[in-house]
Amino acid sequence: MTGQGAAYQRILLKLSGESLLGKLAYGIDFERARSIAREVKEVHDLGVQVAIMIGGGNIFRGIRGTEAGMDRAAADQMGLLATVINGIALQEALEKEGLMCRHVSAVEIKALAEPFIRRRVIRHLEKGRVVVFSAGIGSPYFTTDTAAALRALEIKAQVIMKATKVDGVYSADPLVDKKARLYKEISYLEVIRRGLKVMDSTAISLCKDNNLPIIVFNLNKKGNIKRAVLGEKVGTSVR
């Protein structure tokens, strides 16, 4: 059972690969990974079950390979492997903070991670282990946003918490347009209709069809994960 005022019992935290960059231009800043792990521990200590879907953009994005002339499937497979590298780093960071953690890959890679078996993952969560998902859903053409929505539904998470580098969902890119307006709440349909960069349309549609709420918040503001879990108004709520 959740305790200490937590609004959710089980969450899926969506992290981009760029969240692990820290002050680096490329790769993994392990101290940054440790900082994220400490924030996850604060949430875990509330009695909340935590699963994390990690991206790979700090190492390789499939779209970059495609733009350079690679076959889309091959480029995406490289991107999936980048997420596995990040998964290993995040698992190590979480364990350094004293959390039990299981790294689960959608691509079979037994020496490095467990395969995805739905009931086993749910059991890990019930036993208080943090689960890190990597390799998306294991197939090209699907983003880690879509993978996050799918895994959240499969494990019966109550919310997706999407960590970003801005304060939530804006009417335009706030890093470019200073007049961009921050939405406190917005519907799935409005996100799709306006073409807002929350998650890709497949992920949004999955959440909409299954009434799975999304909270988009700024990871760079310390304590935001915990505040969101406690039900405080953080970032943008998509419902």
Characterization of the model:
The protein has one domain: Acetylglutamate kinase-like (Carbamate kinase). The protein is α/β, with parallel strands linked by helices and 239 residues long. A nine-stranded mixed beta sheet has the order 4-3-5-2-1-6-10-11-9, sandwiched between helices. The radius of gyration is 17 Å and the shape is globular. The model has no long low-confidence stretch (mean pLDDT 95). The protein has helices at 30-44, 62-67, 72-96, 118-126, 144-154, 188-194, 201-209, 224-229, and strands at 10-15, 49-54, 101-105, 114-115, 130-134, 159-164, 169-170, 182-183, 185-186, 214-218, 236-238.
Features:
Carbamate kinase; 11 strands; 37% helix; nine-stranded mixed β-sheet; 239 residues
Q: Which class of secondary structure composition applies to the elements?
A: alpha/beta
The CATH H-level superfamily is Acetylglutamate kinase-like
The first-to-last residue Cα distance is 25 Å
The share of residues in helices is 25-40%
User: What's the number of domains?
Assistant: 1
The ordered H/E elements are EHEHHEEHEHEEEEHHEHE
Q: How many helix segments? A: 8
Count of extended strands = 11
Task: Based on Cα principal axes, name the global outline.
Answer: globular
**Share of residues in strands:** 15-25%
CATH class wording: Alpha Beta
Question: What gyration radius follows from the Cα positions, in whole Å?
Answer: 17 Å
Which spans of ≥5 residues are poorly predicted at pLDDT below 50? none
Largest sheet at a glance? 9 strands, mixed
- The name of the CATH topology is Carbamate kinase
Mean model confidence by pLDDT: 95
CATH architecture level-2 label: 3-Layer(aba) Sandwich
Order the strands across the largest sheet as they lie in space: 4-3-5-2-1-6-10-11-9
